[in-house]
């Protein structure tokens, strides 16, 4: 057994109550890896009390999602062990204004797959830079349980949902032969309908349509870069909702901006509704074109070559846009 998995096993065995949390605005991989961790622990340790806490449940139906405790605040409780999945640290999971779990002295295990993980002091980190936290959870418990490792139909489905989501249906570079082996093991137990899943994920609410229209009125194309933004005046004038603006942002960011003929990369700028004078820019690029990670870093944000983001402070949308363009022109000569 690998050393970190052995230490993880020992921490589980020393516990009676375990808490599992994941990053804010959880995606499919976050939910799947969280539920799988609970299910795997319960298989090996039926008396263990395992609690999952998040601020929301998944938008599509996945096995055992009802077991997630939806909590407004994540406070320290009677847990003896805290497991963080699909995130590198507490900071990515908590809202320091409301939560108090960050002050805990309980042992913390981090199960992650991101490359730029901020190392928290003293935490046990399990991260083999796999395709997804889902794949990492699967691999870790396979190592821990050895001969006794088994996959239930629920775990099988969660494994597939998590991997399909985080690899973009196996399109991203993060898909390795081992990812496909894990997937095959799960598929053999119980199959999921990938086409149906993609269709359900591709849906967007109608209320995002007026926001899409507002965004598109600002569309600018500079060489092979395109961008759109939205300001508070447009939001008020057109009666746009926060959710509509956020959904429109995600749609334009992932399915529109870099698919315009002649365009290979770009960004979408929106207000950060949680704080005053705060904005959020998201970049997307295409393999072989602009590395947007370095632009986001210039702005004090982070991310990868093809997907990156940064928070900004500005009084108006125009001022925020100017800041972004300044960073873009500094990096891209
Ligand atoms: Mn993930």
TrEMBL record:
Residues 279-331 form the DHHA1 domain. It holds the Pfam family DHHA1. One of its GO terms (molecular function) is nucleic acid binding. InterPro entries: DDH_dom, DHH_sf, DHHA1_dom, Oligoribo/pAp-PDE_c-di-AMP_PDE. SUPFAM superfamilies: DHH phosphoesterases (SSF64182). It comes from the Bacteria. Residues 17-163 form the DDH domain. Coiled coil: none annotated. PANTHER family: BIFUNCTIONAL OLIGORIBONUCLEASE AND PAP PHOSPHATASE NRNA, CYCLIC-DI-AMP PHOSPHODIESTERASE GDPP. This is DHH family protein. It comes from candidate division WS6 bacterium GW2011_GWC2_36_7.
């Amino acid at each position: 057994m690998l050393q970190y998995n052995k230490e993880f096993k020992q921490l589980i065995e020393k516990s009676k109550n375990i808490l599992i949390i994941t990053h804010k605005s959880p995606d499919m991989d976050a939910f799947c890896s969280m539920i799988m961790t609970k299910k795997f622990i319960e298989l090996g340790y039926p008396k263990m009390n395992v609690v999952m806490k998040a601020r929301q449940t998944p938008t599509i139906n996945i096995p055992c999602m009802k077991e997630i405790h939806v909590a407004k605040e994540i406070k320290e409780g009677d847990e003896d062990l805290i497991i963080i999945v699909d995130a590198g640290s507490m900071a990515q999971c908590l809202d320091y204004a409301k939560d108090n779990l960050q002050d805990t002295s309980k042992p913390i295990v981090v199960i992650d797959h991101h490359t730029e993980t901020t190392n928290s002091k003293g935490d046990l980190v399990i991260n083999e830079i796999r395709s997804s936290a889902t794949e990492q959870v699967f691999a870790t418990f396979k190592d821990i349980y050895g001969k006794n490792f088994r996959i239930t139909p629920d775990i099988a489905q969660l494994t597939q949902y998590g991997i399909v989501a985080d690899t973009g249906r196996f399109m991203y570079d993060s898909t390795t032969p081992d990812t496909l082996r894990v997937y095959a093991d799960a598929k053999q137990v119980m199959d999921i309908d990938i086409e149906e899943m993609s269709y359900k994920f591709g849906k967007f609410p109608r209320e995002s349509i007026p926001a899409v229209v507002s965004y598109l009125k600002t569309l600018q194309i500079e060489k092979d870069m395109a961008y759109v933004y939205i300001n508070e005046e447009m939001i008020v004038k057109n009666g746009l909702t926060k959710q509509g603006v956020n959904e429109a942002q995600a749609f334009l960011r992932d399915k529109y901006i870099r698919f315009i003929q002649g365009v290979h990369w770009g960004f979408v700028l929106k207000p950060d509704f949680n704080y005053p004078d705060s904005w959020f820019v998201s970049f997307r690029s295409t393999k072989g074109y602009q590395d947007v990670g370095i632009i986001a870093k210039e702005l004090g944000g982070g991310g990868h070559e093809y997907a990156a983001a940064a928070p900004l402070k500005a009084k108006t949308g125009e001022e925020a846009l100017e800041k972004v363009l300044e960073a873009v022109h500094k990096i891209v000569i």
